Every structure is written in structure tokens, then in C-alpha cells.
Automatic annotation (TrEMBL):
InterPro entries: TadE-like_dom (IPR012495). The chain crosses the membrane at residues 56-78. Keywords: Membrane, Transmembrane, Transmembrane helix. Residues 50-92 form the TadE-like domain. This is Pilus assembly protein.
Length: 166
């Protein structure tokens, strides 16, 4: 019985030793694979090929936002400049007595219509001067509406001109 137990222990010890040896050899092999992976990763880290493409993809949304913001701001400034020109022309026509106040209001609103908005015009005559005001909500003028924080903002152009004597 003693010899059977000893034989079993020896067999078990042998099996344990073999398992340990296999595991160590596997660890060594795994260590080689891990070293190889780290070496390749180090190569990727040092290699700069494709980094420009990645940076482009990462920065593209920022550039697009800046471009859209610039387009919206440009349209707002251009619209206000256009409104000034139209209000100046309208005030000049009224000051020369070429058209009446109602005709001037219709003329200014028709001339200032664009793809985005139809502004409202007001023409007031008071003795010596005529004032033409064109207004439109900023939110109606923009393409991308990135200025939604400025929703109550009105794009306005006002011109006052002296009336010529009759």
C-alpha cells in the first residue's frame, strides 16, 4: 500500500512538474509574442505615416464650425450693408419728393427682400427730415443659424436725410 501511495505521489509530482514546465515554456513563448507586439507598437509610435490623415479627421469638425460661423457672420454684415444702401436710396427719393411715404415703404421692402428674410420698413417724415428704417430678425438671415444665442437681435439700418424744398 505504501508503494502504491508513493507511486501515486511520484506520478502526481511528475504531472505537476510537467504542467509547471509546460506553463513556463508557454510563458516564455508568450513573452516572445509580447515582446514582438511591443516592438511593433514602438515602431508604430515612431512611424509618422498617416498621422496627418488622423489629425485632419480630428480637426475637420472644428474647421467646419469656424467656416459656418464665418458664413453666417458675413451674411449678417452683408445684409445690414444692403439695408443701409436701400434705406439711403429710399430716403433720397422721399427727400426729393419723388415718392410718397407709403410708396417709399413698399419700395424699400421690395428692394430689400432676399432668399432668407423679408424685412419691415418704416418711413417717417417730420417737417425737415425723412427717416427710413429697415429691420429684420437676425435668425431669419443666417444659413446655419449658429447665432441662435442672438435670436432677439435685429439687423437694422436707419438713414435720415433732410427734405429738399419744394
Amino acid at each position: 500500500m505504501q508503494s502504491t501511495i508513493a507511486a501515486f505521489d511520484a506520478t502526481r509530482r511528475g504531472a505537476v512538474r510537467k504542467a509547471m514546465r509546460d506553463r513556463l515554456e508557454g510563458d516564455v513563448e508568450m513573452g516572445r509574442k509580447t515582446k514582438h507586439l511591443f516592438r511593433r507598437a514602438r515602431g508604430f509610435r515612431k512611424d509618422a505615416d498617416g498621422s496627418a490623415s488622423i489629425e485632419f479627421v480630428l480637426w475637420m469638425p472644428v474647421f467646419m464650425f469656424i467656416l459656418m460661423l464665418t458664413i453666417d457672420a458675413s451674411i449678417l454684415f452683408m445684409s445690414q450693408s444692403n439695408y443701409w444702401s436701400i434705406s439711403r436710396d429710399t430716403a433720397r427719393l422721399v427727400s426729393r419728393h419723388a415718392i410718397t411715404e407709403e410708396q417709399a415703404k413698399t419700395y424699400a421692402e421690395a428692394a430689400a427682400v432676399n432668399k432668407f428674410a423679408s424685412p419691415t420698413a418704416s418711413v417717417t417724415k417730420n417737417g425737415q427730415t425723412v427717416t427710413v428704417v429697415l429691420t429684420s430678425p437676425a435668425s431669419q438671415l443666417t444659413v446655419f443659424n449658429l447665432f441662435s444665442f442672438a435670436t432677439p437681435y435685429q439687423v437694422e439700418a436707419s438713414t435720415t436725410q433732410a427734405l429738399e424744398p419744394i
